[in-house]
């Protein structure tokens, strides 16, 4: 069975002028695309199946990521349902010369495991060790209410 730490992914994207809005910072849609891609990778590690996005909720854009900075996209699965995987996604801006970071964007997403377009069951996600507990607790602390 996969554990939370197995699903933890950190990716970097350099913000280029082609990623920018009129304010010379990363366009929100581009940031969401990166979040969706990395979030899906975490979900697939948890599900051990191909996953598709079912829901993206509570996307908070707190500050911009200027051109030239690096978008640091971090995601991990923290809970599973019968065919779904819940993923926490956090983005920070990273100053490439100093490594200094600052949180910019965060979201919760739900992905569904599919095979030939049909939802399939996912394994239970285990919590093994301190890192897994810290990641799960961090996600659950601010998780939006589920309907």
Automatic annotation (TrEMBL):
This is Acyl-CoA thioesterase. PROSITE patterns: HOTDOG_ACOT (PS51770). The keyword Hydrolase applies. One of its GO terms (biological process) is acyl-CoA metabolic process. Residues 5-117 form the HotDog ACOT-type domain. GO terms for molecular function: long-chain fatty acyl-CoA hydrolase activity. SUPFAM superfamilies: Thioesterase/thiol ester dehydrase-isomerase. It comes from Haloarcula rubra. GO terms for cellular component: cytosol. Keywords: Hydrolase. PANTHER family: ACYL COENZYME A THIOESTER HYDROLASE, CYTOSOLIC ACYL COENZYME A THIOESTER HYDROLASE. InterPro entries: Cytosol_ACT, HOTDOG_ACOT, HotDog_dom_sf, Thioestr_dom.
